[in-house]
């Protein structure tokens, strides 16, 4: 079964940093776009960032541009999200999602999410 | 960038049909594939429809998707409603950046 599994969430102070990881299994990871999507408590889904498959195209929501960096290690089948200068409004469950193809940013398979809490 | 607008909530009785709309604010609805995701309380989202009208494997054929260029909108229709369909539903598309609709809560009365 195709799976993605997030890790790395936790409690961090405002202005701090955190790196999320997403381990992928049972599909050809390098050939698929991957995305991060978050959901603040009681709110809807918010797209955060995407990374294309095979070519190094990255995209960011305006709310995180300049603070977050998406990357992938195809040799480890892992997607990352480096989050710097964290704010209270970044508090959310962060989901990793597999894209439908190399340049297709529709989401196909979702992880269970990892919780990030930004608070002093 | 464009927005996707969904109704906040819809409700219907078991066995009936509901349709959720997703209206694109600018640009053509046909210029980017539309996906639909289901999120039950306390769970991660799952994909129901991709590429406007394709059901993901394992999704019952009670779920169908479509787009309408005249209203610049996409729709998710759930027929033969079951209590297990009670969830939040999100539409999503992309055109450079990825955009989600605000979500629609479906209540099965």
Salient structural properties:
heterodimer; A: 120 residues; mainly beta; seven-stranded mixed sheet; four-stranded antiparallel sheet; 11 strands; 55% strand; globular; B: 109 residues
Question: How does this structure look, described?
Answer:
The complex is a heterodimer of chains A (about 120) and B (about 110). With about 120 residues, chain A is mostly beta strands. Helices cover about 0% and strands about 55% of the residues of chain A. Chain A has strands at about 5, 10, 20-25, 35-40, 45-50, 60, 70-75, 80-85, 90-100, 105-110, 115-120. In chain A, the strands form 2 sheets. In chain A, strands 2, 4, 5, 6, 9, 10 and 11 form a 7-stranded mixed beta sheet that branches. Chain A has a 4-stranded antiparallel beta sheet with strand order 1-3-8-7, with no helix packed on it. In chain A, a hairpin with a 6-residue loop joins strand 5 and strand 6 (about 60). Chain A starts with a strand and ends with a strand. With about 110 residues, chain B is mostly beta strands. Chain B contains no helices and 11 strands. Chain B has strands at about 5, 10, 20-25, 35-40, 45-50, 55, 65-70, 75-80, 85-95, 95-100, 105-109. In chain B, the strands form 2 sheets. In chain B, strands 2, 4, 5, 6, 9, 10 and 11 form a 7-stranded mixed beta sheet that branches. In chain B, strands 1-3-8-7 form a 4-stranded antiparallel beta sheet, with no helix packed on it. Chain B is globular, with a radius of gyration of 13 Å. The interface between A and B is medium-sized, with 22 and 23 residues.
